[in-house]
Each structure stands twice: as C-alpha cells, then as structure tokens.
Amino acid sequence: MRKNIVAGNWKMNTTVAEGVELAHQVNAAVEAATDLKCEVIVGVPFTHLTAVKQVLTAVNLAAENCADHVSGAYTGEVSAPMVASTGAQYVILGHSERREYYNETNAMLKTKVDLALEAGLKVIFCCGESLAQRKDGSYFDVIKSELTESLFHLTAEQMANIVIAYEPIWAIGTGETATSDQAEEIHAFIRGLIAEQYGAQIAEDTTILYGGSCKPSNAPELFAKPDIDGGLIGGASLKADSFMGIVTAF
User: Fold this and answer.
1) Residues noted as catalytic
2) In whole angstroms, what is the distance from residue 44 CA to residue 65 CA?
3) CA distances from residue 133 to 14, 62, 93, 142, 184 in whole angstroms, order as listed
4) Is the CA virtual torsion 200, 206, 207, 210 positive or negative?
C-alpha cells in the first residue's frame, strides 16, 4: 500500500535559526493535527540537518542533495553517509535546478541513488520536462529516459525505498501549474513505466508526488487524482500555515 506524502523543499532559504523555528512550527502543527492521512517531510539545507533533526518528532527529515562519492578530496561536497549520520531519513535527488544549474546527468544521478540507498537513505527522485519539451511533445521520452537511466537498474526491493516526484519544470516558481488532468496523465504514465519494469504490484506501491507550484488552493484537486500521492512543495513550504494547508488537503 503506497503512502501519501507531503514533502517540503526549502531550497537555499533560511538561516539555521530561522529553519529551526520553521521546523518547530511545522512539527507542532503536525502533532496537533488529528487524522492526518499523509507522511510529512521537510527537506532542508545541509547546514540545518542536525539542528532541525533535534526538534522533529512527528515529521521526517530530508537533505536536498548528496554527493556522487562516498568520501575523499571533494571540497565542499556532502556524502550520503554524512547525510545519514545526521538522522535524516530521505534525500532529494535529481531536482530540475540541480540538473540545470549544476549539470547533473542521468548517469551521475544513478550513482547518487545507489550511494544514498547504500547509506540507508530513502530517495525522493525528481523527473520532469521543460517548457520546450512540453511544447514539442517529447516530454514522455524525456521522463522515460530519466527514470530508465537513473532508477531502473534497481531491484524490486530497492524500489521500495524510492519516491518519485514529477516536476513540470515550466510550472516551478512561475506561478503556472499543470492542470490536475495534465499532472494525472504524467503520473499514470510513470506508474505504467514502473509496471512494465517491475510489475503491477511494485507500481501500485510506489508513491508519486506532484512538484509544480502546489498550493493550498489547488492541492485538494490534485490530490484527488488516483495516481497523485502528494506533493514536493517549494515556496509554500517556507511558511508553516501554507505548508499545513497542503498537508491537510488529503
């Protein structure tokens, strides 16, 4: 049975003190909520992981990235074992910003996924198309390549530790949002690819999140779709009230 998940992605925002305060607010709101129907995760900058972990009791913790090496002379990098040592349970990999700004390839992400799983982390793996790819109709091929080249070497047992986040890049930070039908189409396509590779049961058990400008106002419609199991939330996760408006949309 797949989980519903709402995960925040703070990106490069908040100081440590601000992040701890925000984490306190989110954790308190989740603790006070009754009959929650989703797991709640906050994805925070590396500098915040240890301090934020100390205040979370009802919320799980994610890093926003990890290195493609375990250790060594890689100044400024943070490895998957380092992330795991903070108590984080998840790591976000393959976000469109990492792909675009830091030239992360499908092959590099395959390595990162393997290292994260070896370190005992669960992976929130992002995939999605640009505006140009949406317009030229190549977006199905783009998404298939991202999943095939970075994830589909995994065993069925390893896939149990993968959450997929579909992010239409054209709808991130633009105020644009894919319609619920557009989002459902891609989520169903992704689930179909997993079924082809691993069988219907693994596909049914895999959580697939929507990651494109999800807000309290549109979350209920999105989450009502049969293949949308929650959201990877950017800007709206930086305020506890807006984030909780999405958490309670289930």
Assistant:
1) 95, 167
2) 10
3) 33, 29, 21, 8, 18
4) negative
Query: Which pTM value belongs to this model?
Result: 0.97
pLDDT for residue 196 is more than 80:
yes
Q: How confident is the model at residue 171 (pLDDT cuts 50, 70, 90)?
A: confident
**Residue 172 in this model has a pLDDT that exceeds 80:** no
Lookup: tokens for 229: 């199991």
Check the CA dihedral 75-100-228-145 and report its sign: negative
b/e per residue, 119-134, with b = 16+ CB within 10 A?
bebbbbbbbbbbeebb
- Alpha helices in the chain, H assignment, sequence order: 16-32, 49-53, 80-85, 96-101, 106-118, 131-136, 139-150, 156-159, 180-198, 200-205, 219-223, 240-247
Q: Are 98 and 165 in contact (CB under 8 A)?
A: no
* DSSP state letter for 212: S
